[in-house]
Design brief:
214 residues, alpha/beta, Rossmann fold, six-stranded parallel sheet, two-stranded antiparallel sheet, 9 helices
Length: 214
């Protein structure tokens, strides 16, 4: 039996690919305020970090009120149709089922707002696998979410964060937790390995095999 007291999963780029919905919703917001739209080919750069960071970097705007307005416009479209413009990665349902059947508690920790994350889990029929959903919001970073989960006793010192971007690894390490990277999402091997994760997985089958023996 694996020794991890909880497996914390990221959502975007780890369980499902949100590229289409995120790109279209970002461009919807940018167009609303007269900013140049982004090229869909470069969307991976904006999947993972908090929205306010992405909009500041995309537009160069630092005014807090304008950034909040961009996020509000993004969420209008994302909450309507963008969340459903999403593709589940092959092997994810089977992997989550295997981990649960082995007795491992699963939680979701995403920079996405919690209500959007819950709708995506329900869209794919994954909601019953997770004991809790921790979502982000403006001004709330993933390391802060994990710190809150620790303070609440929802995760213990043997928890493992699983995600596809460097932010997932660094958020776990900042809280004294181990982390694992996945290569089927939007982060490169180089990005992940630079943060020294415990594991880097190439597919969901490997994830299950290694974590059940970890």
């Amino acid at each position: 039996m694996a020794h991890h007291d909880t497996l914390l999963f990221d959502l975007d780029g780890t369980l499902s690919d949100p590229a289409v919905g995120i790109c279209r919703s970002i461009n919807h917001a940018l167009a609303r305020f007269g900013h140049a739209e982004i090229d869909p080919a470069g969307i991976s750069a904006w999947i993972g970090p908090p929205l306010e960071q992405s909009f500041r970097q995309i537009t160069g705007v630092q005014d807090d009120a304008h950034v909040r307005a961009l996020i509000s416009a993004y969420r209008e479209r994302y909450g309507d149709i963008g969340y459903a413009e999403n593709t589940l990665y092959p092997g994810i349902p089977e992997a989550l089922q295997a981990l649960r059947e082995a007795g491992l508690p699963l939680g979701l920790c995403t920079s996405k707002r919690a209500d959007f994350a819950q709708r995506i889990l329900a869209l794919f029929g994954l909601q019953d696998h997770f004991g809790f959903v921790s979502g982000g919001d403006i001004g709330r970073e993933k390391w802060q979410q994990i710190a809150e989960l620790k303070a609440q006793g929802r995760v213990g010192p043997q928890a493992l964060m699983v995600g596809d971007r460097a932010v997932d690894i660094t958020a776990a390490h900042r809280n004294g937790l181990a982390a694992a990277g996945v290569l089927w999402g939007h982060g490169s091997r180089e990005e992940l390995q630079a943060q020294r994760p415990r594991h880097v997985f190439t597919d969901p089958d490997e994830l299950v095999r290694v974590l059940l023996a970890d």
